[in-house]
Amino acid sequence: MQKLNPDIPTITAFENSPDRGKGLARDMPVRWAFEEVGQPYKVRLVSFKEMKESVHLTAHPFGQIPTYEEGDLVLFESGAIVLYIAQHHSGLLPNGTEARARAITWMFAALSTIEPPILDYEITGYMEREKAWYTERMPILEDRICARLDKLSGRLANADWLEDQFSVGDLMMITVLRRLGRSDMLKKYPNLSAYVARGEERPAFKRAFAAQLAIFNGERPVD
Amino acid sequence: MQKLNPDIPTITAFENSPDRGKGLARDMPVRWAFEEVGQPYKVRLVSFKEMKESVHLTAHPFGQIPTYEEGDLVLFESGAIVLYIAQHHSGLLPNGTEARARAITWMFAALSTIEPPILDYEITGYMEREKAWYTERMPILEDRICARLDKLSGRLANADWLEDQFSVGDLMMITVLRRLGRSDMLKKYPNLSAYVARGEERPAFKRAFAAQLAIFNGERPVD
User: Fold this and answer.
1) Looking at domain B10-91+204-216, which of 3.40.30.10, 3.10.129.10, 3.40.50.980, 3.40.50.300 is its CATH number?
2) CA distance A175 to chain B (A)
3) Least CB-CB distance to A61: which of B57, B76, B152?
């Protein structure tokens, strides 16, 4: 393996992503952010076994992906990495202190308000499927998600993006909404479905999606 | 009511906090951040009814507290507000681009990695207590929390704070861990218990805690 160019950041991603190339793993928003700002990046794949070993745990205390390495700087948490990319390049944050703060607010809304009930629904889906309570609990969890989507849909209304222009807030919100996949929940909100589709149509999204799909299809990243 | 001074930001908080003055509502980290940086602030109390009405929903699309208002700027999401305060005052972010990015990473770790399983445990505690599955599910949720606390405890080790100095990352992490209250989960990790206590001993924390407790005790904020 060649020595990595210290000017090009390296991220980690799943060697075998459990989403089978759907672009739902947490390297996806980081790839998307890199593509939006035109920053080349390298990818180091890690296996599930390696993720729990000390080398990786030094970079990511919770044994997950992605990490971000650039010289001596090591970051984890996709939200933190995406924000760092947005702050150090142009293209993902508007000009003006107040507009930037609004964009960042939507990032936190995506991760703290919209994502938790969606994650709960996902985890229940794969961890509690055999439990007696599964069929009774799932509609409760759907209701919790839809209570949030109601409000988000009302706020977005007929706008293209959550504020005046596409920002890191939309990038993260669309990333989170994509976890709902083609579920009936998202279909109930045509403006949110269109919003997600609008994000997926961006050339930067398409390049990021293709890059992660290539790994699932057995094409290794080149160092 | 006097016209608010546009130089002093105004936040919203619960008129009747459901935590009964324990400082677990989401205005608490914002108050703590203000106190750490020495920024005076005003508080406008909102009732549960007002939170769901259009005036408040214009500021907070999800009908929650807190909001942050300063001149024309309106923010919501406690994470976004705390980060904004940290970025615009000294005292909560270290000097140096890399150290700042590390501190912000811990904020996201608090909100995206540590808090979701804790919230799930809380919500189950008050929403599913009467369900047949309650006693079987709660230990599952405790295990999910402890899996994260294990890693956090290992990373903190014997250090005072998550990085070299107290930062917005510690402020948010301690805020999230406080949701576990005096639970046995936190007691299993003496270093995390001591870390939370270390945060609670900070004068800024104490002032913030006293301010929210005063409201629960019937003392109204003065505009």
Assistant:
1) 3.40.30.10
2) 14
3) B152
